[in-house]
Specification:
118 residues, alpha+beta, Alpha-Beta Plaits, two-stranded antiparallel sheet, two-stranded antiparallel ribbon, 5 helices, binds iron/sulfur cluster, Ferredoxin, 4Fe4S_Fe_S_CS, repeat, electron transfer activity
């Protein structure tokens, strides 16, 4: 079992979750995070910390479609252990539906991405 990051993290990316995870199993994309399903110890402390309510246990019927995406990108994106600066317009996108189809970026986030941009 694991927890997964779902659609509503996209473009919100508040990152409260990374501060509380005891095993540092969050990975950072350009505009969302994912959880590494093999590293998550299923403690559940991140779920209530997410202001976007974007973290689900994989027992949730909604979680299945996100498990594949979390598994795939946790292998590719860099690990994140400290809360960074959320996007300036994060609150405007909190609760918007269909964000994966409209906005998901497969690019990695974090310092490596900033280095490439800069
Ligand atoms: S707290 Fe929620 S919205 Fe913020 S990065 Fe974590 S999963 Fe995404
Ligand atoms: S459930 Fe626990 S181990 Fe899994 S991502 Fe959340 S805080 Fe980390």
């Amino acid at each position: 079992m694991t927890y997964v990051v779902a659609d509503n993290c996209i473009k919100c990316k508040y990152m409260d979750c990374v501060e509380v995870c005891p095993v540092d199993c969050f990975y950072e994309g350009e505009n969302t995070l994912v959880i590494h399903p093999d590293e998550c110890i299923d403690c559940g402390v991140c779920e209530p910390e997410c202001p976007a309510e974007a973290i689900l246990p994989d027992t949730d019927p909604e979680a299945e479609k996100w498990l594949e995406m979390n598994t795939k990108y946790a292998e590719i994106w860099p690990n994140i252990t400290e809360q960074g600066q959320p996007p300036a317009d994060a609150d405007e996108f909190n609760g918007v539906t269909g964000k994966y189809e409209k906005f998901f970026s497969p690019n990695p986030g974090g310092q490596e991405a900033e280095k490439k941009v800069g």
